[in-house]
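Lab notebook: predicted structure, single chain.

Context: the supervisor wants predicted structures on file for every construct in the current expression panel, including those that have not yet been purified. This is the next one on the list. No modifications to the sequence; it matches the entry in the shared construct table.
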Amino acid sequence: MESFFSSLKKERIRKRIYKTRDMARADVFDYIEVFYNRSRRHSHLGDISPEAFERARA
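Prediction complete. Output recorded below exactly as produced.
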């Protein structure tokens, strides 16, 4: 989890100023669901994205 939160902070949160908590929540949700879970390469998957990993398994 520490690695995830470090990535979240470096790649998304530190670069932005949010006007409301709802805007921050929406941005974190977008980071997790759209970028981190689908596109970002993960070392434990052989440095490919989860989406590519699932396609390769099918």
